[in-house]
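Page 42, continued from yesterday. The earlier attempt failed because a stray header line got pasted into the input along with the sequence. Redoing it now with the clean sequence only.
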Amino acid sequence: MTVKSLATGVAAVAAIGAAAAGVTCIASVTSASPQVQPVAVGAPLPLDPVVAAVDLPTADQLASVLNMLQDPSVSFANKGNLIEGGIPVPIGLADHELQKAASKGSLPLTFSFTSITPAGPGIAAATLQAAGPHLAPTWENLTFVDQGGWKLSHDSAMTLISAVRSH
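This time it went through. Structure tokens are written below.
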């Protein structure tokens, strides 16, 4: 399956950002280059620079965000905190699309994360496998941002929306 299939299964995410505008700036991770120091012959050299610890979300935290987005029993009026920048489309439209996906039996999807890595300050890149009643296991790369809690990034929401619009 393609990202188009994943996006179709998560029709609600498509509805949320259909009217989204703007660009999200993603900061890159920078680290200080290690300084070369003279050493005595035979002294061990560090192999890797020391990297500061980064707070990453757990797989359960990210799955919770995606599960709340796809919950047809909760209106999008109560989901603005799940997507970076909030819900930029009429709540009624987003709710309608989610109910349509649920009535077609496309929900719920299940999510299994294979990796969660830092992608910048307060940003996590996640590789996941999604599957559902009408969706064979599909791999996807999404980003999440920490803004007082983990949220699906604007860019990841737009990727899913673009895939839905293309079919």
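Notes: The two ends are 14 Å apart (CA to CA).
Reminder to self: strip header lines before submitting.
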